[in-house]
Recover the amino acids of this structure.
């Protein structure tokens, strides 16, 4: 069992990564249905929450069937992070996660996300303020360091554990790397091996297959794995990894019918949560991912991204399932 404060997770949990514009409630619903053990919201701006911006507030929506679920916050100001942790706690998640990993310019260059890796005293102060602001467990997601010269994750892990975080997820890249090169899990393993570290350490970066998940589990000794991009359009990754861990066998890929049904479920949840107009519009970015590798999908995609009618979306998805074959 992995324990995060009062939250008990299965042995070696699989976490769905927080992903902006992806890991919203509709997407989380399909990942939960396929075995994600712990999920997070998209990152939410602390300033946005304090301003009560509609976009930030809506991201606070969490549902009972999603539990355990964490709300992820980012910001550059200690007091705003404290206040936004209080606001987030009222939304009823199981934990609060702090983002110290986001590398993108308009976050990191404004002193938030991965920028805190260059200012450990402020990171400690911010984390401590959040820990004190909520009765919920607080977790952190971060990277190896700012750049190759300052891979300070070992120090970061000790300092953050000392002030009370309950788990740490490490993406095996630096800020400067952004998403380039391969994720390096050797430093993640070092953090895990440190006898001072008692909290769960979750590894993240480039896990795309059950085989790689098992290899990294065994080689790097982490307490669980967080999966991001491999789940986009492919929520089956969670159940495939679990099945492989349990049996050593690879599940057959989802059938076209299953792909269509899960895509429909995602769409239905989008309509429910976002309303008809936005639900239809935002679902458009997901179709290619669900039907990747299918010959002749393009004309169906063209129709899916043009229609404004929910009934037509369902009808086209039925047609897809009835008429296409895998390219390979
Ligand atoms: C589209 C997208 C959005 C992301 N948004 C967030 C975010 O909101 N918060 C966060 O901590 N990480 C975010 N990330 C980083 C992922 O959580 C994860 O660390 C990264 O994708 C590496 O894991 P992977 O190789 O399994 O994808 C995002 C990544 C992607 C691809």
């Amino acid at each position: 069992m992995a324990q995060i404060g009062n939250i008990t997770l299965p042995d070696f949990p699989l976490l769905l990564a927080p992903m902006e514009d992806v890991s919203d409630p509709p997407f989380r619903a399909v990942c939960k249905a396929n075995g994600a053990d712990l999920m997070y919201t998209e990152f939410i701006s602390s300033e946005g929450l304090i301003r009560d911006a509609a976009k930030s507030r809506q991201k606070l929506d969490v549902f009972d069937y999603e539990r355990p679920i964490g709300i992820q916050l980012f910001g550059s100001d200690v007091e705003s992070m404290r206040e936004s942790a209080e606001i987030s706690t009222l939304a009823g998640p199981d934990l609060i996660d702090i983002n110290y990993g986001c590398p993108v310019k308009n976050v990191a260059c404004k002193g938030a996300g991965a920028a805190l890796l260059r200012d450990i005293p402020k990171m400690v102060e911010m984390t401590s303020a959040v820990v004190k602001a909520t009765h919920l467990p607080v977790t952190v997601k971060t990277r190896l360091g700012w750049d190759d010269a300052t891979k300070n994750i070992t120090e970061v892990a000790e300092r953050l554990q000392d002030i009370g975080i309950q788990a740490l997820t490490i993406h095996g890249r630096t800020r400067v790397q952004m998403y380039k090169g391969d994720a390096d899990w050797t430093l993640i393993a070092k953090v895990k091996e440190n006898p001072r570290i008692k909290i769960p350490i979750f590894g993240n970066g480039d896990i795309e297959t059950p085989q790689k998940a098992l290899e990294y589990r065994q080689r790097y000794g982490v307490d669980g794995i967080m999966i991001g991009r491999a789940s986009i359009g492919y929520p089956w990754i969670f159940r495939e990894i679990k099945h492989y861990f349990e049996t050593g066998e690879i599940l057959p890929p989802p059938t076209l019918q299953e792909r269509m049904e899960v895509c429909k479920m995602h769409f239905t949840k989008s309509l429910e949560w976002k309303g008809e107009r936005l639900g239809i519009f935002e679902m458009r970015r997901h179709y290619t991912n669900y039907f990747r590798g299918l010959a002749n999908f393009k004309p169906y995609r063209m129709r899916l991204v043009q229609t404004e009618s929910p009934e037509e979306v369902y009808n086209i998805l039925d047609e897809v399932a009835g008429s296409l074959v895998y390219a390979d």
